[in-house]
Amino acid sequence: MHILLIEDDLDLGRALQSALKVEGLTSEWLRRAVDAPATVDATTIDCVLLDLTLPDGCGFDLLARWRAQGEKVPIIVITARSAVEDRLAGLDGGADDFVIKPFATAELMSRIRAVLRRSARQASERWVLGDLVVEPRRHAAQRDGAALDLSPREFQLLLELAREPGVVVSKSVLSQRLDPLGEPVDFAAIEVHVSNLRRKIGAELIRTVRGVGYLLQP
Hints:
By secondary structure, this protein is α/β, with parallel strands linked by helices. The protein has 7 helices and 14 strands.
């Protein structure tokens, strides 16, 4: 999963990137509002950590712009502003959570996991999909109680399909999400990974939609 971090404080930014890496999350760190993307595409970004006080603007403006465009990526505001009015403005403006500095890194990681579960329509850290169970934080999966021996790329592919079971995920989306910090994964490689994943979890669980992509049908 890929996190966009917008935070101007050097020490905090470095600490958060290290903490995200420990959690198995990739991240991109920006320090100015002007460097923020015009849109936060849910195909490449899973969550945004947004500071409100930036050297060249206010995080509220970015939040308002993205929500006005209909962007649904989870956004957690991280700020030193503790006034009730600021918290209400953030939440009413479309933030999914509001964390006051200074905060415990463990708490922020927990809040990230919570908004990611909500965005994936899962109530816990164990995604139960019929007899298939996926545990993103542990990088583990099992079927019928038996552990599945998946490579990191196979597990990432399963995770992307399990976010919305029954919904087609296009090859173009998968090519971006499987390696958000690198070059898009080519379609031929995706087909190989899908074939390997089918062999390990059961071919009947992944359906090919010709010319589009794949869907998980537990």
